[in-house]
Amino acid sequence: MRNSNTLEDRIASRIGRSKGEVFMRKDFDDLADYDQVGRSLRQLVVKGKLVKIGYGLYAKASVSPLSNRAVPRKGLRDLATEALKKLKVEVALSSYDRAYNEGQTTQIPTGRVVGIKGRVARQIGYDGKYVTFERIS
């Protein structure tokens, strides 16, 4: 009989109760050490409950009706914005968003460019699609 109070179960329970969509590996430091948390998160990715979106970054997942694969429940821009806030990086409108909002263009921004104040040395994305960061001064 399987113990229902394994680390993986406790992490999955915490993820299920959370209102946020993005989780960092260090969010679970109080449950176990670094390696154990990493193994449990990898198992949740294999089971399709999470999607890895960056180094130490995970997002809640659901099964896509089109591809029958696990995909994030929210869009890439929303995930990147939430992840950057967790990383304490200030997010701003990109030049594309500003141009569209000011009526200078009718080109709708794709959402793959996120304006930031500061520096980020990470890639955030999944399945070969990544967000580009634009430094706003």
The secondary structure category is: alpha+beta
Question: How would the global form be characterised?
Answer: globular
**End-to-end distance, in Å?**
58 Å
Q: What percent of residues are in strands?
A: 15-25%
Mean pLDDT across the residues is 91
SSE arrangement, N to C: HEHEEEHEHEEEE
How is the main sheet built?
A: 4 strands, antiparallel
| Low-confidence runs | none
**What is the helix content?**
25-40%
Q: Compute the number of strand runs.
A: 9
Radius of gyration: 17 Å
Number of helices: 4
**Quaternary state of the chains:** single chain
Descriptive notes:
The relative contact order is 0.14. Strands 1, 2, 3 and 4 form a four-stranded antiparallel beta sheet that branches. This protein has a three-stranded mixed beta sheet with strand order 5-6-9, with helices on one face. The protein has a two-stranded antiparallel sheet with strand order 7-8. The protein has 137 residues and is an alpha+beta fold. It contains four helices and nine strands, in the order H-E-H-E-E-E-H-E-H-E-E-E-E.
Which characteristics define this entry?
alpha+beta, 137 residues, four-stranded antiparallel sheet, single chain, 4 helices, 25% strand, three-stranded mixed sheet
